Amino acid sequence: MKYSHPLWRTLRSLEGNQKACVFLEPLWAIPYNLFLPFASIYMAAIGLQDKQIGMVVSLGLGMQLIWGLFSGAIVNKYGRRRMMLLFGLLSWTVPCLLWATAKGYPFFILAVFFNSMQQVVNNSFSCLIVEDGHSEKLVNIWAILNLVGLFSGFISPLVGLCIDRFTLVPTMRLVYIVSMGFMSIKFILQYRMSTESAEGISCIKKCKGQPLASIAFGGLYEFFIALKQSRLLLCVILGIVLTCYNNIQATFWPLFITKAYGVRYALLSVFPLVTSITSIGVYLLVSPHIKIRGGTIRLPLLAGMGLHMLGLMALLLFLPMGALWTIFFDVFCEALSQAVLGPLLEAMMSIVIPGKERARINSLIFAVMLLASTPVVGIAGYLSQVNRTLPMIMNLCLIVIGIFISLCVIHTFEAQQIEACK
Predict the structure, then answer these.
(1) Is the dihedral of CA 98, 186, 113, 241 positive or negative?
(2) Within 13 A of 123's CA, how many CA atoms are on the CB side?
(3) Nearby residues of 13 by Cβ (< 8 Å), 6 or more positions away
(4) Which residue in 47, 303, 347, 365 is deepest, having the highest Cβ count within 10 Å?
(5) Distance (Å, rounded) from C-alpha 107 to C-alpha 185?
(6) Which of 49, 27, 53, 198 is nearest to 111 (CA)?
(7) Rounded-to-integer distance, Cα 207 and Cα 196, Å
(8) Is 46:159 a contact under the CB 8 Å cutoff?
(9) In sequence order, which residues have a C-beta less than 8 Å from that of residue 398 and are 6 or more positions away?
């Protein structure tokens, strides 16, 4: 009997731009997930101070804000396919080369300037997948892309083995060089295998002669009108809190556990494996049962926020005599929480954002989240310079604020459901 899982059927039936995007995604996702867990400790090993690491991340977020605001205008004016190739090489090939040859702080500042251009790539990628494709396949396509990233976690322990044998810096230099090669091949092949979408061709014609600024900021009025909805405003605030939390956690958690718990660098490669296994379990067993329309967000939202708090409290309460199991418990809680809250927040946003001008409003909301989180990560860097426990305490405070906002969000959603039933 032939295997007939929906995702497998979707994968076999892909064609055109959707096929090019999905089939080539592992060439980017696998290298990215190999070096991501080690990014901050690699910077520290090169000689950067914690406050400098925070500044690098903050500058990156600030630059992503600018590129994010203009990304829609750029891909509309110059085309999805060409901008995918150009900015793909600029935002990943160039930074990987700089990271691989880094000798100090200026290398990472220059690298993050180029890497922030990925916002144009993300916008182009999304357009190529959605436009000219079969809309009924989109849910399964995004599920496949998420699984590609998760399955990359199963390869990450190989980097740990290399670190054990060759030490951190030489291993990471090699990983970045290999990543540069694979990512460059990905963007070149994707350009060759794809075609400009009909919508893209239409946008190029419409935007001809128009300045980028007028294209980019044409939806500002609709954005502020939309924010008058209490549900949208609260969801944006919650998104800002979680963005700040995630950026601090991704940057300073590895520095914290290596210092406070004495975790070896090589062991960091095991944690993505735990995250992948846990997240896949949630996507297969829990996510299908979470419903926004006609259901309630109370349990999944509060559970997700509570898991964030539980993991952090375990890390902080068991200092300085905490054992390795404490870190694995925190990783497990984080993976559960991220797998629940990520899709839930996206679904909530999709409901509360008005259909008209959705694309530009989405872009502006993302920009607002980045704008708010940029200084927060910088502050966390200075706190980490004083004591690496302080960013974790800062994150705990953010989660407390997030729980309060979550209760307000739940109240507005439930009130809306009651009103709809009358």
Answers:
(1) negative
(2) 29
(3) 137
(4) 365
(5) 24
(6) 53
(7) 15
(8) no
(9) 241, 244, 245, 248
Pick from 143, 152, 145, 146: which is nearest to 273 by CA?
152
pTM for the predicted model, two decimal places: 0.83
Each residue's pLDDT expressed in tens, for the chain with a length of 422 residues: 454 567 777 788 888 888 998 999 999 999 998 898 899 999 999 999 999 999 999 999 899 888 888 888 888 889 889 999 999 999 999 999 999 999 999 999 999 999 999 988 988 888 888 777 766 676 677 777 877 878 878 888 888 889 988 999 999 999 999 999 999 999 999 999 999 888 888 888 888 888 887 777 766 666 667 666 667 888 889 999 999 999 999 999 999 998 888 888 888 888 988 888 888 888 777 765 666 554 578 888 999 999 999 999 999 988 766 678 899 999 999 999 988 887 788 777 767 766 555 556 666 777 788 888 889 999 999 999 999 999 999 999 999 999 999 999 888 887 776 565 55
Residues 6+ apart with CB under 8 A from 270: 156, 157, 160
Total H helices, total E strands in the chain: 21, 0
- Give the whole-angstrom CA distance, residue 316 versus residue 333: 14
Structure tokens at 42: 């690699």
User: Cβ of 3: how many Cβ atoms within 10 Å?
Assistant: 6
Q: Which contacts (CB < 8 Å, 24+ apart) does range 217-224 have?
A: 217/69, 218/360, 219/357, 219/360, 219/361, 219/363, 219/364, 220/364, 222/354, 222/356, 222/357, 222/360, 222/361, 223/357, 223/360, 223/361, 223/364, 223/365
* Per-residue DSSP letter, 124: H
Q: Is residue 59 a contact partner of residue 181, using CB atoms and an 8 Å limit?
A: no
